[in-house]
Amino acid sequence: MQSPNRESVGAKVEVRSLVKLFGMVRAVDDLSFCAVPGSFVTLLGPSGSGKTTTLNIIAGFDDPTSGGVFLNDKLITNKPPNKRNIGMVFQNYALFPHMTAAENIAYPLMMRRLDKPLIRENVHKAMQLVQLAGYENRYPKQLSGGQQQRIALARALVFNPPLLLMDEPLGALDKKLREQMQIEIKRIQNQLSITVIYVTHDQEEALVMSDKIVILNHGRLQQIGGPLEVYERPRNHFVADFVGETNILQGEIWNEMNQYFLKLDHLDAVLEIPAEMDLTPERVSVSIRPEKLWLESYETKKKGLIGEIEELIYVGESTKYLIKGFKKQLIVKQQRGKNSISFQKGDMVLVRFRVEDLVFLRDET
Question: What angle do CA 144, 147, 150 make, to 5 degrees?
């Protein structure tokens, strides 16, 4: 493999007004986004959201109904897959079972008719890159799932593509190995400064790996942003509910003497809204993450939402409390530690939070 230039290796990718129809179904509905050179962009969404269809159109395996894909500002929509110079890693690895690891990695170079000495050199470098030097003569059935995934990754990178597409590549691995491979893929991507477009339905995976997350539902774009933005500031109900765990409540904002107030439905609380939130009187939906809530003893008599612990769930480093006393159950996640207060099922508690941690959601995409 050639020594990459960090400023020029990764490609700029633009998807412009992409539409894909399957009969009357709009699998991709007017989708646009951009991946800057060397970035890691994840298409995130539930099954049927259009993320794999979008990836297949970028790869050239499917044609769009309308719209285009641009690689370094050049339209590639009409180019066949083998003319796009794009690497691809599939969920099922797609390794040739009758070929050794080295032969699988060498295959794209053989198709490009490179000289044998250069093929051997690039295969050796690719094996080193994925930390599998010494496994050259093993067949896929002699490799673990994680090792097969590394070989598939090496094969996709061996010809130095400016863009790597990955379709749910870690879905078949167990949790611990999947987390290890997330770190490994990011290490390799940073080392090569290659552009990656990655498809997953796993929210945690997207948050861990991505520079930018493109969230889709029913083929339509819901939000684009960095991991912190889409988690902390979801734009609508779908994003708040899909990315991580949250409490979504409805309420009403009104104005009295130039001061705005929020009354949450079914909760005996009226909250003052800081002026910098810049809201208008209307019905609203708000989101607040379970870890932004905290519990205090009911006996403290402080201001808070009064509820009863209906269930508690131990999840390692934290405890998840399910609180009743409202028309909608609240979820509170509290870190475990020597200074934290432990509550029991049936305890009456105060649920407290900061108004600044409420996120006001839009209804529309």
Answer: 155
DSSP reduced 3-state for 300:
helix
Report the number of distinct structural domains present in the chain.
2
Residue 46, in any domain of the structure: yes
Q: Is residue 45 part of a domain?
A: yes
Element (H, E) at 294: strand 294-297
The amino acid occupying position 200 is T
Which pTM does this prediction carry?
A: 0.90
Contact 295, 349 (CB under 8 A): yes
Closest CA to 352 of 313, 315, 321, 316: 321
Number of residues in the chain = 365
DSSP state of 186: H
- What's the whole-number average pLDDT of the chain? 90
Of residues 279, 301, 197, 293, the one with CA closest to residue 249: 293
Average pLDDT estimate for 208-235: 97
Say whether both 326 and 343 belong to one domain. Answer: yes
- Quote the CA–CA distance of 58 and 50 in Å, as a whole number: 12
* Residues of the domain holding 268: 245-361
Residues 88 and 21 in one domain: yes
Residue 317 has what pLDDT? 85
Whole-angstrom distance, CA of residue 75 vs CA of residue 163: 15
The CA-atom distances, in angstroms, between 241 and each of 34, 36, 155 are: 25, 28, 37
- Which of 225, 241, 257 corresponds to the end of one domain? 241
The single residue listed with the structure tokens 């998807």 is 15
Determine, yes or no, domain membership for 2.
no
Distance, first Cα to last Cα, the chain: 43
Q: Cα angle at 178 between 177 and 179, to 5 degrees?
A: 90
d(CA 26, CA 3): 42
Has residue 8 been placed in a domain? no
Are 157 and 296 in the same domain? no
Q: What is the pLDDT of residues 3-59, one digit of tens each?
A: 433 344 799 999 999 999 999 999 999 999 999 999 999 999 999 999 999 999 999
Is the Cβ–Cβ distance between 311 and 345 less than 8 Å? yes
Q: φ and ψ at 86, to 5 degrees?
A: -120, 135
Q: How far apart are CA 316 and CA 338, in angstroms?
A: 14
